[in-house]
Amino acid sequence: MSKIWTICKRELSSYFDSLIAYVMIIVFLGLSGFFTWLYGNTVFLIGQADLGVFFGISYWTLFFFIPAITMRSLAEETRSGTIELLSTKAVTDWQIVVGKFLAALILVGIALVCTVPYYITVSTLGDIDHGAIWGGYFGLLLLSAGYISIGIFSSSTTNNQIVSFLMALFIGMFFQILFDILSSSFTGPIGTFFNFMSIRTHFESISRGVFDSRDFIFFLSIIFIGLTLAQTMLSRRNWQS
Amino acid sequence: MSIIVENLTKTYGHQKAVNDISFEVKTGEVVGFLGPNGAGKSTTMKMITCYMAPTSGDVRLDEHSIHNDSQDIKKKIGYLPENNPLYTDMPIIDYLRFCAEVQGVAKSNVSERIGKMVDLCGLEVERHKRIGELSKGYRQRVGLAQAMIHDPEVLILDEPTTGLDPNQIIEIRKLIKELGKEKTVILSSHILSEVEATCDRILIINRGRIVADGSSETLRHQAQGQELLTVQIEANKPSDVEKELLQLSTVATVSGIEGRDGFFQVQSKPETSSRKSVFDLCVKKKWYLMEMTGIETQLEDVFRELTN
Q1: Which of A62, B165, B233, B281, by CA, is between 20 and 30 Å from B37?
Q2: Is residue B154 part of a domain?
Q3: B83 touches chain A (CB under 8 A)
Q4: Residue B130 DSSP class
Q5: Do B192 and B242 fall within a single domain?
Q6: Is A238 touching B (CB cutoff 8 A)?
Q7: Contact A199, A63 (CB under 8 A)
């Protein structure tokens, strides 16, 4: 565990040293703030004290931002050869992958914490459903975790950051929107299956403040499968011939 | 801590990068891998350091095998990979701290170890810089520092002196010799003089196989079949010299050296020396012996002969 934390700390400091972290937080706050307060269906237009607008926007901004955060994680290590240095130290491939996953998750967590003033502001405007707000934040965190693990897997397959970014977006696209579209054009078990595979279904359920074990199983499976595949890709040097 | 390599093989496609290599390195030995590019030196090192698994065969550090205890082995090895990859965006001290923590150095010892490495590798002047701002020589020192940060019993150094200037090379060699007193060191190089200067034992690797194994003297001795002498003799009748030399019982061939009057190359018969008889002959004939030099086989010759 302490090894994972050591790797995570290094990743985090590299995010903050290279300005990726600041740019990501500022642009995220700017975009979500703009659409929550200033433009389109803002909180004022809807006239209700809730943050549904913000969660709807973040659902999309995080989808695009997370691949940008994770594209570097393993691709850059492979390109520069530092992966050889790291994996010959006393850590397992799993610890490397999980460390990098946690670092990206903490970065997204920090960005989300920066939006707490929205919550405070809205709660002073009227009666607010606190459960739904916490559910929404929690949903965003789970959604981010899922995309981060997909991003880390994409990053493990290549040594090119751009390929890694596009691949993460491509895989993410299925969960983000394609399965949702497919589920409405099929009926019966296939429709149910696509509906279950869509992140939107689970995200909406959680952000309504409903805690259903199926939603957790869905997100945890994505995280686990993504990280396991990433670990497998890292270990491929062992049997590659 | 001794390293035992048994029948190590690594296949890439149809090509055997490392082909059934076996050897043993004892504690306190400094062993040099020597070989042309692509001979399998780095691949062997990568397998010893648990970076990749061999196709077949085993490496053991005392009782630990790479197949079962890779984590234990990694803890005991300090590794400097080829081309010395480093996190260029990190400050030196942070990087060394990261390496120490990953290698499981106790929290209370980390700062002390970092201090020691900074002293040992001469990083004091640059200690507040980022790795990316360092010159190649200093990066190499950081690479060595990270390899030794957890005080490993085994050091594996893949071309440790590439990119260094002559002064730095001498310093690093001195450091390796110093370390080699207590630790087991394997280093690779294609610079022969380097291996000769630092290593107790040399393994010459070619096309994935060990083609020679021994100290630099034994290797030279093996390659040197017959004694070869260069002599310069001043005689009244220079034309006689060659004929007379040939009549000595130990001499196999004599040839004049072109463009240099009075110089001859004398090759002795196997297992014999002609030094004394050449001298005696000169005394008898009242010639002046101006020069007599034994030509020693250089490690370069051994290397070229074995790897061509």
Answers
A1: B165
A2: yes
A3: yes
A4: B
A5: no
A6: yes
A7: no
